[in-house]
TrEMBL record:
Alphabetical list of InterPro entries matching this protein: At4g27190-like_LRR (IPR057135), LRR_dom_sf (IPR032675), Plant_NBS-LRR (IPR050905)
Keyword Transferase: no
Domain Disease resistance protein At4g27190-like leucine-rich repeats: 124-228, 271-330
UniProt keyword annotations, A-Z: Plant defense
Protein name per UniProt: Disease resistance protein At4g27190-like leucine-rich repeats domain-containing protein
Keyword Glycosyltransferase listed: no
SUPFAM superfamilies documented for this protein: RNI-like
Amino acid sequence: VIPNLEQLELRHLSDEGQFPLNFFHHVKVLKVNGGFHGGSPFIFFFLRRFYNLKSLEFDNFDFKHVVPCKGDVGTPSPIKNLQLTSSKNLKHIWKKDSELGHILSNLQTLTIKNCDDLINLGASSVSFQNLTTLEVSCCKMMTNLVTPLVFEKMVQLITMRVSDCTKITEIVANEGDYHQTIVVRNLKCLQLSNLESLTSFCPGSYTFNFLCLEEVVVEECPKLKIFSEGVLSTPQLQSVKQDSLNMNRCRAGDLNTIIQQLYMEKVGCHGLGDLTISDTFPELIEIWQKSPRAVLELTYLGKINFYKCSSLKYIFTSSMLLSLKQLWRIE
């Protein structure tokens, strides 16, 4: 035993038997680098020797040939922090009988970076119950992050950041048959950055109740049209920021309305106060017809252009027209 060894990095591990059984008794932080060969298939047998492990990182590790632990091989340490960087052949963080699944229930922090094979976190509703921080970035194959049931069971989650996942279209998947109100109890900060395919946080008509959500950051999400299609409650929301570093680019108000306004401005505005509505962007016409509040709160509008709007049934209701006090020209 090395009595004071608490942090350890292992590279190109191939022969776990070269170490005595009690060699890693006091290690709390472990990084496993798969190296050229992708790592050992018996890594999870080996991890049973780390009795006090709190933080684990897999870097450039290939999970394809990992051998699951069976029989009486001991229990894994209650790991609090897990980081997966450039991991290969990992489609779900949790799946039935997976070795990663056995260590998830105690996690407080989960960080995932550059895992190009990852599709989503998986479908277990009990695996992430102690998670407080979730950060996911640069996962090329990810199309959504979690199911509605898994998201609701993340009862301790405080911070969620998702960025640079080019194929992700939704954060919470639309499963259609989930009819309960999704109560999100502790989430305070949600950051969505550089998600070029994201169209909504959740496309399903679910009811979301974010009890503690205070800050939302939405930056470089050009296709984001609405936060949620269903009923949405955010009683503690203080601001929606367009830039995590620029405090001046923030707004307050109804979350769905702000997201719709940002989309309208991004697609239809040609300058401050100049908005164009046309069939080229049918989403704008849909917002114009279904969500007049998003239009009414654009109080700075001075000029509106309507061009080839064959699907538009009307231009204004009386209340809309009276609310746009800066409007001086319609074409």
